[in-house]
Write a structure and sequence with these properties.
The chain has about 325 residues and is α/β, with parallel strands linked by helices. The chain has one domain: UDP-N-acetylmuramoyl-L-alanine:D-glutamate ligase (3-Layer(aba) Sandwich), CATH 3.40.1190.20. Helix content is about 35%, strand content about 20%. The protein has a nine-stranded mixed beta sheet with strand order 5-4-1-8-9-10-11-12-13, sandwiched between helices. Strands 3-2-6-7 form a four-stranded mixed beta sheet. Helix 2 packs across helix 8 and helix 8 packs antiparallel against helix 9. The mean pLDDT is about 90.
Length: about 325
């Protein structure tokens, strides 16, 4: 087994507010946007991207034995990946997220009533992961549920087991928290994830600076790269900045003129990055692959808009 993606899977309900706003401005009339149902989840988006790029990842997440779970499995089955160890629960629901998007940005997103504890994704247990950890060379992790129990402990234990085996661990922080103060327990858990990871990708203001406050990004990078890690700092349509013990490199983005939405762009970055690493490319080139896959994903709604290998090569030039 090459790549194992471990984390979450669910459904995005997308309301294209930006599209509706433009139609109202153009016509002066009334337009009610039609909600779109898209299978998603941060880890599911990444696994889908990896598969589209010609690899055969194993994907493990916990979903509900319900209609949304069936939609999700059907969508993931469109591409080549190992879903044999997916966990289907009769006790918990498949999670859904309401996303209101304004073309170039997601205005806000809401989870269902009752919090995250009722959803299958956050209730993944260590014993449900099986033996996949003992076979992977690359483990790809999302930090989207660092504050949710028991999945936060499940993921950490799996990372530590993979680390002992010498696997490369790619962590996408995925906290989405630029607008609020992080709880202390979440910060501590995030640092444990980072300590165990090989390559850490995330945003500057929303993630790295929040977790390591009051340190600057240069101070954060110095501390982490001296222990052999690499930091990949994403910034939307701007350059991605790669920090290693050898120094700093800026990797240009691939701008898009017509953006449908940004849902899953970071997830697709991680997918492209992981594939490049699995094929033996340098960290700098892996960041280029990540930028290219993220850019391509902006052209369609939802988080599963990754390119195939031919399309990726065309973007890379």
């Amino acid at each position: 087994m090459g790549i194992l993606v471990l984390g979450d899977a669910g459904v995005d309900i997308v309301i294209p507010y930006g599209e509706a706003k433009k139609k109202i401005e153009d016509s002066g009339g009334v337009y009610i946007p039609v909600a779109q149902l898209k299978s998603g989840g941060t880890s599911a988006n990444t696994a889908y991207c990896i598969s589209k790029l010609g690899q055969y990842p194993t994907f493990i997440a916990k979903i509900g034995n319900d209609g949304l779970g069936k939609i999700l499995l059907d969508d993931l089955s469109e591409v080549e990946m190992d879903l044999s160890q997916m966990v289907v629960s009769d006790e918990f629901e498949t999670f859904r997220v309401l996303n209101v998007v304004d073309n170039e940005e997601r205005l806000f997103f809401l989870f269902g009533e009752g919090g995250m504890s009722k959803y299958a994704a956050t209730n993944l247990e260590v014993d449900e992961v099986g033996d996949a950890l003992d076979k992977c060379n690359i483990l790809v992790i999302s930090g989207a549920y660092l504050g949710c129990t028991p999945i936060q402990y499940t993921i950490l234990e799996c990372m530590r087991r993979a680390e002992k085996r010498g696997a490369t661990i790619i962590l996408d922080l995925n906290l989405r928290c630029a607008e609020y103060e992080l709880p202390k327990d979440l910060i501590e858990m995030a640092k444990k994830y980072i300590d165990t990871a090989t390559f850490i990708t995330g945003t500057l203001k929303g993630e790295f600076l929040r977790i390591f406050k009051p340190l600057s990004i240069d101070e954060i990078a110095d501390n982490l790269t001296n222990s052999g890690k690499a930091l990949i700092v994403r910034d939307g349509g701007n350059d991605t900045v790669l920090y290693t013990v050898e120094g700093i490199k800026r990797i240009p983005a691939f701008p898009q003129e017509k953006i449908v939405d940004t849902i899953g762009a970071g997830d697709n970055f991680t997918g492209g990055f992981a594939v490049a690493i699995s094929l033996g490319h340098s960290l700098e080139e892996a960041c280029r692959w990540g930028n290219a896959t993220a850019s391509f994903s902006l052209l369609s709604a939802g988080g599963k808009g990754s390119p195939n290998m031919e399309q990726l090569k065309e973007i890379l030039g």
